[in-house]
Amino acid sequence: MNARQWFLLSAAASACALLLCPINSAQAQNLVALYQSAQDYDASYQSARQQALATQAHSAQALAGILPSVALGASVSQTSQTSSYS
């Protein structure tokens, strides 16, 4: 199941849940807040989301391996010598 199909299935499940659960005026919430709340508690959705984020991070790491790197270094030293001639 790809991400688009998962999103549509999740949206349909959320819509069904909203239709089956009555919301009284004291507990009124907008549809977006309810949908986001449902996603927060959906383990499958969270797993897919974290997998997508990990894939994006992995692609950035792979790209970093082929890009050139630049290094900069600096150092300072001082030598003091005293000698007495008689």
Question: What secondary-structure arrangement, pairings included, does this model have?
Answer:
Layout: H1 3-20, H2 31-40, H3 43-66
Helix pairs in contact: 1-2
- SSE pattern, N- to C-terminal: HHH
Catalogue the unreliable spans: none
Please tally the helical runs, counting DSSP H or I stretches of 4 or more residues: 3
Average of pLDDT: 77
Biggest sheet, in brief?
Answer: none
The secondary structure category is mainly alpha
The general outline is rod-shaped
| Assembly category | single chain
- Portion of residues in beta strands equals under 5%
Compute the CA-based radius of gyration.
30 Å
Fraction of residues in H or I helices: 55-70%
How far apart the termini lie comes to 92 Å
Number of strands: 0
Can you give a write-up of this model?
There is one protein chain. The chain contains 3 helices and no strands. It is mainly α. Helix 1 crosses helix 2. It is rod-shaped, with a radius of gyration of 30 Å. The model has no long low-confidence stretch (mean pLDDT 77).
Short structural description:
The protein is an all-alpha fold and 86 residues long. It has helices at 3-20, 31-40, 43-66.
